[in-house]
Design a protein that fits this description.
The chain has two domains: 55 residues, no CATH class; 186 residues, Aminopeptidase. Helices cover 43% and strands 16% of the residues. The protein contains nine helices and six strands. The protein binds zinc ion (ZN).
Length: 251
């Protein structure tokens, strides 16, 4: 579970970029460059896929990284840790343990892929603040942020995967990973939903938070705690990441 919510402060002033773009366009016309370039406008002038030709923001930097030839940078975030145990499982275990187990296995799978660069927000049982997790991904200019969690509920018959995203650019990533989880794990499909979770709100790249399963359900807890179950879960997430990278032309 990840309960904290936040809203990113919008500091985009739409009029200033409009005026700047107008000045640049007029300048290009005067210099005769616009007719030579045809439709080959630069991203800042509306050639980018971002519908907003009226703003220039860090999103545009991310768009550029998606078309580059550099490695696909994946930040893996094992939820909770240290003094923050997360959800409690049926047998009294804690979410932070299974999250880290899956995250480490995912790291090991991905680091063998030469087209990928991978980092973790934590790789042991330490407490890391939510804003620091997002900052690590932002500072590194990660291409995607994948947060791994587990759920619990008072009714121990409740089961299944759930995948959250915050902004539209996270939805294709959520779909790729969620589809593989459902196909490869055989847990119940609880769906993909928009959720204003703090780590997703603060992360500037396509970001998802995966509720891998219900630790309060004895069978899912056993899977989430077992080496074999964690490996299958990590492989499903890796397969989803690979499918996503292929879909956006990064593989
Ligand atoms: Zn959690």
């Amino acid at each position: 579970m990840e309960r904290q919510r936040a809203t990113r402060k919008s500091t985009r002033f739409k009029m200033i970029p409009l005026v700047l773009i107008a000045i640049v366009v007029v300048g290009l016309i005067l210099s005769g460059q616009l007719t030579k370039q045809g439709s080959g406008l630069s991203p800042a002038l509306g050639g980018g896929k971002d519908e907003g030709a009226v703003h220039v923001s860090s999103d545009d930097e991310n768009d550029e990284s998606l078309t580059g030839n550099d490695k696909f940078k994946i930040m893996i975030d094992a939820g909770h840790g240290g003094k923050d145990p997360g959800a409690e499982g049926h047998s009294g275990t804690f979410e932070k343990v299974s999250n880290l187990g899956i995250a480490r296995k995912l790291y090991d799978i991905l680091r063998n892929d030469p087209s990928v660069e991978v980092r973790m927000t934590r790789n042991d049982d330490t407490f890391v603040k939510l804003e620091d997790r997002s900052a690590m991904a932002n500072d590194w200019h990660a291409d995607v942020f994948v947060s791994i969690h587990g759920n619990s509920y008072e009714d121990d018959s409740v089961t299944g995967h759930e995948t959250f995203y915050r902004y539209d650019n996270g939805l294709p990533l959520a779909e790729s990973i969620h589809d593989k989880l459902v196909d490869e794990m055989g847990f119940k499909d609880r769906g993909i939903r928009l959720n204003e979770l703090k780590v997703l709100t603060l992360s500037q790249m396509p970001s998802v938070l995966i509720e891998t399963g219900y630790l309060s359900n004895p069978a899912e807890e056993a899977t989430l705690l077992s080496d074999e179950g964690q490996t299958r879960m990590a492989q499903a997430i890796a397969d989803g990441l690979k499918a996503y990278a292929e879909n956006i032309g990064r593989k």
